[in-house]
Amino acid sequence: MHDYGIIREIVIILAVSLPILFLFKKANIPSIIGFLIAGVIIGPFGFKLIDDTSKIEVMAEIGVILLMFTIGLEFSIEKLIKMKELLFFTGGFQVIGTIAIAGIIFYSFGVPLNSALFFGMLISLSSTAIVLKLLVDKNDLSSPYGKISLSILIFQDLAIVPMLILLPILGADEGVSLAAISVQMLISFGLVAVIILLAKYLIPKLLFHIANLRIREVFTIGILLFVLGISYMTEVVGLSFSIGAFIAGIIISESEFSYEIVAEILPFKDAFNSLFFVSVGLLLNVEYILMNPVIVFPLIGGIILLKSGIIILIIKAMKYPARIGVIAGLSLSQIGEFSFILAQAGIGYDLISKEFFNAFLAASIFTMIFTPLLIQFAPLIASKFSFLDGKNLRNVEVENESEEVVLKNHVVIVGFGLNGKNLATVLKETGIPYIVVELNPETVLRQKSLGEKIIYGDSTKKEILHKTHIKDAKVIVFAISDPGSTRSSLKVVKQMNPNVYAVVRTRYISEIEDLMKLGADEVIPEEFETSLQIFAKVLTQYHIPLNVIMKQTALLRGESYRMMRRSDNASPQYYHLDEILAQGLTETFFVSENNRFIGKSLKEINLRAATEATIIAIVRGAKTISNPSGNEKIFYNDTLVITGTHLAVDKAFDYLEEVTKDT
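Predicted structure:
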């Protein structure tokens, strides 16, 4: 009789996961944590609904392969080069520093050197999935600590490849030898290079022929074959499935098929990934935690403190305020999903004992569960660490040098991104005095050398705002993508100068009310301004008069967007656009040099008969020919004034442009 136990286990996983995920969604907690908890509940150490995890682990391995593949798709050489400075400095020092310090700590407790280094690798990695989800939800991805966190996470994702390559070396019976490590690394990277070359030149051609068949099922099967095939090749040569999947993603990350491949693979990845995280939860030994709290909980606290501390030191070394370091450090203080992959691979090389594996799993899952809380309270915790900044946030030569600029009735610009630069350019041209506050030291040094009026500093601090002469400022503009800093800074600004006119950039309409309560005089939500631009562009295509478009825009923008946030269903007094569309209008058409109507008379063009629109005037240079006769000819550079209904004018434009295209 066939064994259908795997179906029963999947049904149990789905049945338990759905209500947990629903509750977690309501609480805005990442689904990964829900899958981990579901695994704990139904596992052999929970309610024992699933005892045998071997079948689930095979499916979970496919989830890991697809996860590594999609991460590979997100990387490109060009993207990494652009981020190289932040990526390799913050990410490199974080990973290497964590491995080194954690390795020393474990080695001092009698753990063998190879295992101590392996434990350091496990601890060095953070959860890309959880942190990115929380940063996106909080709209913090573009903030300084968001960018730093993203750079560290990318480096960690890249670091998993050499870590997996190093496992056979660390697991060697004869111990760790520098010469052996060097030789094995060369062999491993050589094999990887051969696989990349073979795949780079063969796979794109195969994908083209597969896509050219235009059969969706064949394309999907071909992609799965490609991913699993390269993963299997790397496993055969002694590396791992994960490395092969990552290589496969890198190879086609910049190909014309990458977006379609993501769309095809994503449903598979999400389904198998859920099984992976459930399988991790299945392995958590609850009894071990209850029996060994003095091991597990100090380990959890030690991991959070160690990872946070290293990141704070790195960010302070980059001359950022301690606040940024604390928030980024707490955000990345958990152990990541790739650590589970690394840990399971390390079991095969005897690098981790069963007892420590239980402790590691417990610490990993609890640090993941604590992450949303740590990120939520990170700004509050960070405010307690301002003493680390000392008197100045940066050397005097970078911050304000020795000169003291006298400013009055000026504009303070917080942030020198695209919005800040554009505003500064306009103010400079109009002669309005201004000063910029920027938190990126490289930007400050570069702009100072170009003569820009800019200082380095954190706008949430009174000392920095004092340097901007905020008490004498007329306007302050928050042009940064950091909601937390904007709120804190706005509150301080209004305390120091209640009369300053505060303009705040934000992303979502839902944030307007809170910012207004904090003292903002004008809030500009990006999502709404974008909708206005779309609204205006669409109406322009239908030849709605400009004053009507401006009126609709003013109605929507009026009263600080209150109409967009009304709880009732009252509608603003819009023009009846259908009536406008039914009425006539006048438009102009420029005659380009390749128009075949050049030299022909209006009688020959016969526009009215063809479209029901009429040419009522011809503008030729400084001369205007009103009510032209049928014998009037048109010439290059003429502008035709056309009148008619909206539909007739559209037909007239198509009629005239259609002739132009034939040349």
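Summary: The first strand starts at residue 411 and ends at 414.
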